[in-house]
Design goal:
Shape: globular
CATH architecture of the largest domain: 3-Layer(aba) Sandwich
CATH superfamily of the largest domain: Class I glutamine amidotransferase (GATase) domain
Number of domains: 2
Distance between the termini: 19 Å
Strand order of the largest sheet: 12-11-13-14-10-19-20
Helix content: 25-40%
Radius of gyration: 22 Å
Largest sheet: 7 strands, mixed
Length: about 400
């Protein structure tokens, strides 16, 4: 099983390899993130206290202030750490031999995680002495550059922005996480995430359809990440064939590779094996009948899916198509049943109505954890052991008692 480990205080980091805090173009999904892709081992939401964020010529600038700036904490891969730091210094115009001559400086600042822990991290920000040089008229009061940029884009296209559909600024969701938090943290600070080894990506998304901007963006990102050749196989057993046919056409309109529908319930075994094992992308679609989906995937079908994943295929699960990858799932009657254990010790939920059932399950299984993926959010488990949070980042992890106690 692949796994991710992050010490609560980042004490395992060497003193010259601090994590980085990014709040602008180097965040995931922003234009300069390509510099970091494949070169991080962990990414999670974070915020910098006592700061202020400005829009300066369509780029964000952070300086000292009296509020929070929201972004992402990233741990760089140790083998490429110093090389990547030099590349980022060049990008940001920072010269460590002459920092006083630079508009942006790389400095260590305290950063807060959603779990409540704090750490030191490198960031690039404007020095106090240089603030007076610039005309910072456009203050981003909520401190969230990704939200600011997305809102401006959607308003320019559609004339309005619905926060219930496209997401709220991090300042509001962060407060919400803390207001409802008991034993839940959006991203746990321990090695609980263990998933099936393979050469491909495992990408789990919450409920959504391909007309949703967030869902289509995440699916598009998954398609771009795929290295394996071969067509796209769409498994639709949780839903209906007509909807799957429409979704397959929408995928084609997005620029996806050639694809076909796979009926894991009624097609013969030889055809299923051939279609799944030649695929470079296997998408398991959403729908209300998770029991039908689980039954169709059992036995040889799941073995073929695993072989494709072992050879580098990307596996994408949406809604109930994502929930089947835990060690347990909730069936059509909201009862706990064993599942395929791609995520060891996990029960994956995609419906708010299942939260109480999940908590009751964790009281009886203290070594397990619950992974809640809301609509518009997703998690990407990479073949090199990195874990990423996608979309609106509304991912919740509920820990069993033994995991909370560190056992």
């Amino acid at each position: 099983m692949a796994q991710v480990y992050l010490h609560p205080q980042l004490g395992t980091m060497s003193s010259d390899q601090y994590p980085f805090f990014f709040y602008g173009t180097l965040m995931r999904g922003q234009e300069n993130y390509t510099l970091l892709r494949w070169r991080t081992v962990y990414e999670q939401p974070a915020r910098a206290p006592s700061m202020m964020l400005y829009n300066f010529k369509q780029y964000p600038i952070m300086t000292f202030g009296h509020d929070y700036v929201y972004g992402e904490l990233m741990i760089l891969h140790p083998r490429s750490y110093h090389e990547l730091m030099k590349e980022m210094d060049y990008l940001e115009g920072f010269d460590e031999n002459n920092p006083a001559a630079c508009d942006l400086r790389r400095v260590l600042i305290p950063v807060e995680l959603e779990s409540g822990n704090q750490t030191l991290a490198w960031t690039y920000m404007c020095s106090p002495q240089d603030v007076a040089k610039y005309d910072f008229r456009q203050t981003i009061k909520h401190g969230d550059w990704a939200y600011y940029k997305k809102r401006n884009l959607i308003e320019s296209r559609f004339g309005s922005y619905d926060e219930n559909v496209y997401g709220k600024p991090a300042s509001q969701t962060w407060q919400s996480n803390h207001a409802t938090q008991e034993q839940e943290v959006p991203m746990p600070q321990s090695s609980i995430f263990q998933w099936r080894d393979g050469e491909g990506y495992l990408i789990l998304l919450g409920h959504g359809n391909f007309d949703d901007l967030l869902t289509s963006d995440m699916v598009g990102e998954a398609l771009n990440r795929t290295k394996a050749e071969g067509p796209l196989a769409y498994i639709w057993a949780a839903g209906d064939e007509d909807t799957a046919e429409e979704n397959l056409q929408k995928l084609a309109d997005m620029g996806s590779r050639t694809g076909y529908l796979v009926d894991v319930v009624d097609e013969d075994k030889a055809t299923l094996r051939e279609r799944l094992e030649e695929a470079g992308i296997i998408l398991i679609g959403d729908g209300p009948d998770i029991e039908r989906l689980r039954g169709g995937l059992e036995g040889g079908v799941m073995r073929s899916l695993q072989r494709s994943y072992d050879n580098g295929a990307t596996i994408i699960g949406i809604g109930n198509g994502a929930a089947i990858f835990g060690q347990w799932l909730l069936d059509n009657e909201h009862q706990v049943r064993p599942s395929f254990s791609w995520l060891k010790r996990a029960i994956v939920t995609v419906d708010d109505a299942d939260i109480d059932v999940m908590h009751e399950f964790l009281r009886n299984y203290p070594n397990a954890y619950g992974l809640g993926i809301k609509a518009g959010a997703g998690t990407a488990f990479s073949p090199d052991g990195a874990l990423e949070v996608w979309g609106n980042q509304q991912i919740t992890v509920a820990l069993g008692k033994n995991l909370v106690d560190g056992e």
